Structure formats: structure tokens, C-alpha cells
Model the fold of this input.
Amino acid sequence: MAEPKIRERQRLIRLRASDRTLLSSLLVTKDYTGIEEILDTPILLQIHGLLGHFLARGTPRLLPHALLERGFSSMSLNTRLAFAGQFTGKGIFDDTLLDIDAALKFLNDTGFNNIYILGYSLGASMLAYWFANRKPRNVRGIVFEGIHYSTSDAQRARLEKWGGSPTYEEIYERAKCVLGDDPYKSKRDEIFVVYRARGPTQEPTDNEIFTYKTWWFMMGPHAYGAMAHKQIPKIEVPILFLRGKNDFVVHQWEVDELVKIGEEAGNKNIRLRVVPNARHDCMENPEVMLEEIVKMMNSYSA
Done:
């Protein structure tokens, strides 16, 4: 006889970052009569990738409910890059520090005691940058799913491979002209399209859209925050790297190098799991992915 499913409670939460940016998140826990019933349960804060939104396919949508079936709560966060922030000019990568700050403050203020954080795709780069700058004492472990060695290097390589137009160098020169000497404070910005950015055609799925300011801090040669290899040496908590074996976005050498960098910096609690039968989204093989996450959350919880 199958075990009854855990009765869950979903709560939509609106948060304000310290710069007043409005964020949304989804808290998924077992049903409870008093909040103290769930505070000691390990909780995973999930940072989404480029598009955000906790109803998207794969990890953002499926992971919270799968974790709950294994006894763990979760909170999924839409950063300022969600809802087209990349091409409305609102999604400045460096400012996502404030978004994760707001989410962690909510969890701490609520009283959660065992906090883990997972970053998916670009969200993994956000998480690496945040942790390297914040170094919080109350996060027990982090998970990087599908993390690039450097987002700028990755885009440059894609454009060279597919014959992107404009080229990486052309985008950079135009960005300098538009944004001026202080790109962050610049009042000027423009939207642009990169054709053949992710494939050989000019179909929408092979193209990318940015503003010059969002590109500068996410993909530009000075986008140091999005260069995970510069952030990993500053992270001291346990790290789990996940990469789908058939990932066509992140190459194996990228995560291998990041593991090596972390270990050489002195982190003794790093694990890499290549998930078979999965591409960029490791929830294509949920049993293996969940096995690794549950193992981490059981190992380091109080």
C-alpha cells in the first residue's frame, strides 16, 4: 500500500529588497497548525536562472514538491532578473545580492534554523557571487546546478561558434559608447538583439535580447560578479556541484575547474555529481538529483 502524500502548504510571499525592488517567492512546507512545527525542518532556498518564475519547467517547478515528499521545505525566489529584467534594464546582475539578502532575511526572521541554498543556471552564478560577498554564518550548504565557469567566456564562445551578430567585440564597443565612463550609474541604455547567439539560425530560440547595461554586468568582459571562478575560492561551506551528463549549455571542464579551484582554496567539503540522462536541467533525472541534495541536507543539519 502506497504511503499517503504529505499534505503541503503553499504561500506566496512578496519581499522588498533594500533598494525597494519588489520580489516574489513561493514557500512550500508541510501543512501545520503552528509555525514552530516546521522551523527545524531543513529548508532549501532556490535561486532561479535567467527567466526566473517558480512555475517554469524542470527544477524551478518540480524540485520544491519533490523535496517536500522527502521531508524538506523550500522557498523559491524570483530575482529582479525574472519577468524580462534582462531586457527591461532592471536586471542588473550585481544587484541580485540584495534579492538574496531579502530572501535570507525573511527565513531568518521567520525562525528557520537549517538553511541551504540552491542556484540553478544563472542563479548558480548569482549564488556564488552573493556567498563570496556575504559569507553568512547561518547557511549550512549550497548547491550549484549547471554553473558556468564564467558567463562572459561562455557567451563569447557561443557567439564565435554560431557566428553571432553582432560579435562579442562589437557589443562591447557599442556598450562602452552608450554607457560611458560609469556603466552602473549611466542614465543611457538601449535594447539590442544578438542573432545566432545560441544556435545557427535567426529563429527566436537561437537569439538573445539584452540592454547594454544588463549585458555589461552579466556577459561583459568586466562582469566579474558573474565569473564563478573568482567567487568559488571565497566559499567555505559545503558545496554540491550538479551537472547533467548531456548538458549542452555548461561543459564538463567548467565544473571540473571550479571544483579544483575550491579544493585548492582549502574547502574540504566539495562534491561533484554528474547526473546521467539529464541535460542542463538535472530534474530530468529526479531520483539522482534528489539523492544528492537529500544527502547534503541530512549530513549538515543541526
Notes: The mean pLDDT is 93. The beta strands are 8-16, 22-30, 43-47, 73-78, 115-120, 139-145, 191-194, 208-211, 239-244, 270-275. The chain has two domains: 8-149+227-300, 153-218.
